[in-house]
Amino acid sequence: MKSKVNNKLKGLGSEIEEQIDKKLNPNISIPIRTLSNIIYDKSTGQLTLGDKVSKRYFFNVAHAKKFMQTMMVASFCNDLIGQNIHASIRDMFYNLKRTLPETSENTFDVQSESDPIIIDLEVALDIFREQLHLTTDRKGIVAGNVIIKDRGDSIDWSKLGSGGWSIPSTVEEIEFSKVNADFVLVVEKNAGFERLHEDKFWQKHNCILIGTGGQPSRGTRLLIQRLNREYKLPVYVFTDSDAYGWYIYSVIKSGSMSLAHISDRIATPSAKFIGLTISDIFEYELKKCIIKARELDIKRAKELLNYEWFKRPEWQKEINLMIKKGIKAEIEALSHRGLKFMSETYLPEKLKKKAFLP
Amino acid sequence: MKTAAELAKEQKEISISEFFEKNKHLLGFDNPTKALMMTVKEGVDNSLDAAEEAGILPDVNVRIKNISDDKFQIVIQDNGPGIVKEQVPRVFGKLLYGSKFHRLKQNRGQQGLGISCSVLYSQLTTGSPTKVWSKIDNKNKTHYYELNINTIKNEPEILKEEDINDGLKEHGIKIEMRTIGRYRKTIEDYLKQTSIANPFAKIVYNAPDGTRITFPRSVDALPKPAREMRPHPYGVEFGVLLRMLSKTKSKNLASFLSNEFSSLGAHSSNLICKTARLDRNLKPAKLTRDEIEKLLNAMQKVKIQRPPLDCLSPIGDKELEKSLKKEYPESEFITTVQREPEVYRGFPFIIECAIVYGAKTDKMDVIRFANRVPLLYQAGACAITEAVRNVEWKRYNLPQSGNEVSAPVLLIVHMCSTWVPFISESKEAIASYPEIVKEMKLAIQDVARDVSRFLSGKRKVGEQKRRLLLFERYAHEVASSVAKLTGKNEKDIENRLKDLISKRIRISDKDEEQSEQ
Hints:
The complex is a heterodimer.
Chain A: H1 2-21, E1 27-31, E2 38-41, E3 46-49, E4 53-57, H2 64-83, E5 87-88, H3 89-96, H4 111-125, E6 134-135, E7 141-143, E8 146-150, E9 153-156, E10 165-166, E11 175-179, E12 183-187, H5 190-198, H6 201-204, E13 207-211, H7 218-231, E14 235-238, H8 243-254, H9 263-266, E15 272-275, H10 278-283, E16 291-292, H11 295-306, H12 313-325, E17 327-328, H13 341-353
Parallel strand pairs in A: 5-6, 12-13, 12-14, 14-15
Antiparallel strand pairs in A: 1-4, 2-3, 7-10, 7-13, 8-9, 8-11, 16-17
Helix pairs in contact in A: 1-2, 2-4, 11-12
Chain B: H1 4-10, H2 16-22, H3 32-54, E1 59-68, E2 71-78, H4 88-93, H5 114-126, E3 130-135, E4 142-150, E5 155-164, E6 172-180, H6 186-197, E7 202-206, E8 212-215, H7 238-247, H8 253-260, H9 266-275, H10 289-301, H11 317-327, E9 333-338, E10 342-344, E11 347-357, E12 365-370, E13 373-375, H12 383-389, E14 400-401, E15 404-405, E16 409-417, H13 434-486, H14 490-504
Parallel strand pairs in B: 1-7, 12-16
Antiparallel strand pairs in B: 1-2, 2-6, 3-4, 3-6, 4-5, 7-8, 9-11, 10-11, 11-16, 12-13, 14-15
């Protein structure tokens, strides 16, 4: 595996060297990652990249610097793999940032310049950031009846007190020693996770509880996928009742536009949406906690309507309802009917009725 | 109360010289700086006119010495044909005496005022007479004069006159005057500009501080001589016509017209007579005022060919370019244009124009010439300035704010004509006849277009240089990264990449950049 990634990086180097020798304009082919080249594959239920490719040339004033940056990142990752060490994407930025001799120009000025280059390399060489030995900050928490092995240590997700286990950016190499659960419940918000964790929801319902803390990290998404694929656990996603929450659900299920090239590695197409829907607001008498939708919410909702992967009638109905009524709600709203309403009434009922959106 | 008889006693003739005494400014002698300038200018103009007319490549020597605080001695010497002994006193000692006034021919001087004004000014301010040496050929000795002007009679007053043995070595004139003045570097500018407009002249200048500047010839041939032309009917006024009628040798009106005017044949002469309802056989000298008026009107009405255009002697676009290259060796680009002859009020004229780009200035300077003479003052009132303001410089890649063009540019505009319409006798600015301003603007636009093309080429080269530097800047990191990936020698890859850069980015080559997608 490692040598394969190594070979791809070396191949890129050799290709550029060959172009220099042949007096060609050195270039790197990079698949385009804008909406125009993103395709929703109905058969797999995932977003994928189309076959539009752009070329990044050295002899082009607009490309030259990015060309240099791409080669620098490739060379940096090649070193990491060679030495078998990992670096965070922030480490990498600082390692590669320097002032070009006799100028006041830096190779990289801000980390937002080096981050997208990593994704460029991923799509160009069809490899993953994790394989390049690059890590990101831990994001996401998990609790449940599961024991794993991480770098030789055994960790029991049921014995971590109030905290839960922080999900690292790389979860490929985690080994599962014991998985005892009937399903996975993913909660968009850390507050929701805290509530359900304190209420021992995962014990009572024999599930694995995951809090994403907003948009889920790649590590979290991959962990969800592994639990789904390797242990056939159904995945239910619980988010706010607005366009942003619903998009989080779609990212877990179908992949995101910005990482469409790795959807099949981190998406979970069989995931289902448990709540919150606009219909729930009326069904569970949550009218007191309705929030008026802002202009931006409506605009975003209208965008969702047009996404291929939101074209299912159930979703069109929910989104249209939201636009028509001009309302939204957050999962904390459930506490209006008592703090334990979420863990003791709402979720158990939804699970029992199998009231899921596809 | 005074009686008419008493008043009549007080009324008397004013001599031209007295008039000048009181109206120095009309002739350009308004202050000490300009007075010194005018003295040099009139002397040099005359020297160049004389030599050119005699077919001699002019050598002119100017020396200014500061004798005391504000007193200067000016010596101007040329290698022209000289002036015959009998004429010298009147040329220098009588205002409005000269050969150039009564003819239509492109000359530097026009009125026969210039040098005698300098003599008068010197006499009025220092009391010193003007010294003149003249030699016409080697068979004759040098004639030496010391003279003043009798300001009441407007006649020369000869103080000393003799033939001297050890005078001038060859033919030519030398004059020496003393004048109250103030010295400014404008005199040097004037001589430099004179040298530009007269590339066939050699001018040597000895400044008051002892420095000696030589403005060498840039061409070794005199220009095609300007030819005298008869007046064109469109440019004639009542007084002139009256004088011409009284002096003509022609027997009748029709032949007077075709003999004395340019562009008039038998047909158009008869047509004028017919239009004026005058008998073509009238004796010219017998015409009444009323008849002259009718004749003049008819002359303006009838459609007449334009005047002959071959009587002018422009600097020449090639000659002007050579001359500018000599004076501005630091310049990056020089372009010149000579327009086709045009006509205003029956006078033919030619506009020439040049731009020097990369001169030692950060805003555009305009150098004005009329009949090869630099115009140094009253720029604001000049047709050239008006034409310059009519041009939209931004359209020619030259940054402009208000009336100022911020670029290292010298703009040279020359008008040559058989009669340049100056706004005053001091000949400092050309009057803004629409035909003239229009032609000047077209000439300026011609050269401005050339500059615009030059600048966009220059910008392209600059862009190529910037691209070259950009690619070179990134070459090291690229090479070093590639070397780390392939395990090859870093220096080697870097050299090959730099080699490729210099091959692909050739300065001034066409841009063949490939772009994404």
